[in-house]
Amino acid sequence: MPLIEISLDDYAAIFPTGHSVYDSPAFIALNSHKVSEVKIMALVDHDGRPLVAQTFGLKADGWHAPFSAPFSAPVITLNGSEADVKAFYESVREALPEGVALTFPPECYGAVHIPEGRTVHDYNYHYPLARLADYESHLSRSGRYSHRRALRYPFEFTHTEDIPRAYEIIRLNREAMGYPLAMSLAQVTETAPLTRAKFFVLCLDGEDMAAAVVFHPVPGVGQVIYWGDVPEARPFRAMNSLPWHLFNWYARNCPDIHTIDIGPSSTDGILNRGLADYKLSIGCVETPKPTVIL
């Protein structure tokens, strides 16, 4: 079965939603300027009907899927099968000889076919909202201590439409921590409608203490793209109050959401032990997030 390149318009007609919002035609169009070239490859049957497709972006070190998102996965028509996905990646390996890096979603987004290749496993963390029924039992010893300390303070948790307000808290957090902030305010704002983003602020005595930015890439899962506190919030355990309020807000207001994806705690397979311990301390589950190099 041949592998062909298709246009974005053809892709949109055949796969209007993609595996997730990150594989959707609208998201691809929004971010295509970030790479030197975009190719949408499709495996078709002998009658020319697409079976499997995925989008790749060319960077200095080769092709990437995704090229500007947390993860990507192949989209499959009703006529496609797991064997077709395997054949698709075998053909992609030959069609894109510059090399391909494929970062797949972690397990909380459902099973996907992972091709053979050199694999780097990052560590991802998600919170099943079913755990709220017995919240403290899933916390570590230090997590319970910090959670109870945070409960002493009259935090106010707000779902807000004020994107700059939430973003500024995140910016201050990254500045204080010395971490890069990958998305500008303009990029967060233009991406928000596609990802059905929600923004949250945690306050204490009228002062903004912490914030969270949550995307919704697939039904049932909220993905924390950014969260963090300002330095002044550390003595009050704001980053133990924020998850507690966030999880409860989703449980009360979004019954279709069953999981909150907190994201990885590693880069290129190298674990940030402190970040991982924090996410485990608030009750998250650790699963692999594979990147396969073809």
Short descriptors:
294 residues; alpha+beta; Aminopeptidase; 13-stranded mixed beta sheet; two-stranded antiparallel sheet; 30% helix
Give start-end ranges of low-pLDDT stretches: none
- Biggest sheet character: 13 strands, mixed
Kindly give the count of domains.
2
Mean pLDDT over the residues: 95
Per DSSP, the total helix count is: 8
- Strand tally: 15
- Give the % helix: 25-40%
How would you sum up this structure, described in words?
This protein is α+β, with helices and mostly antiparallel strands. It has 8 helices and 15 strands. The radius of gyration is 20 Å and the shape is elongated. Strand 9 (198-204) and strand 10 form a beta hairpin. The mean pLDDT is 95. The chain starts with a strand and ends with a strand.
